[in-house]
Amino acid sequence: MKIFTPIYDKALIWSQHRRAPAILAGVSFAESVIFPIPVDVMLAPMALSQPKKAFYFAWLATIFSVLGGILGYWLGQIAYEPLVQPVLESLGYMGHFDRAQQWFMEWGFWVVFLAGFSPIPFKVFTVAAGVMSVAFWPFVLAALISRGMRFFLVAWLMRVGGPMMDKHLRNHLDTIGWVTVVLAVIAYLLLR
């Protein structure tokens, strides 16, 4: 069943909208605090459809993701019990949050770096960093480097890959989409 290809085609059209950079900035900010959709879903089509602006889009995503991470950090520091904890519980992120706290105790700074670059929910780690009172400036530095590496990698792949990348994505998109859904469900069941 092909449902991901039409969504991808729509994302390519939306990526050329005049307000797409502002939406990318908003999504990047929100994804670091609470929004469940990864930034790459918007960044990749934007970089693919406008390759000359790919690195600009990566900078935009990086800056606003780090700003959102700073908000997540301060929410963890200031409003964890009354505001953040109920939201984490309602979204089913408490297991992730508990694991994030354990990882912070073991690895500190490097956890932020890993979470910023990997598909691990970054928002959980921004809040956990605040709750655990991780040193603020190293947190910001780790977020800036790791989010930048991730978003610039996506932008570079789309810019260099161009039409060939589009062709490969289009040919395998539904398979990738369904595999991702299955892996997400398995991960959710295992981490619950």
Automatic annotation (TrEMBL):
GO terms for cellular component: plasma membrane. Residues 53-158 form the VTT domain. InterPro entries: DedA_domain, VTT_dom. The keyword Methyltransferase does not apply. The chain crosses the membrane at residues 20-43, 55-75, 103-122, 134-155, 175-191. Keywords: Membrane, Transmembrane, Transmembrane helix. It holds the Pfam family VTT_dom. The keyword Transmembrane applies. It comes from the Bacteria. PANTHER family: ALKALINE PHOSPHATASE LIKE PROTEIN, DEDA FAMILY PROTEIN. This is VTT domain-containing protein. The lineage of its organism: Bacteria, Pseudomonadati, Pseudomonadota, Gammaproteobacteria, Alteromonadales.
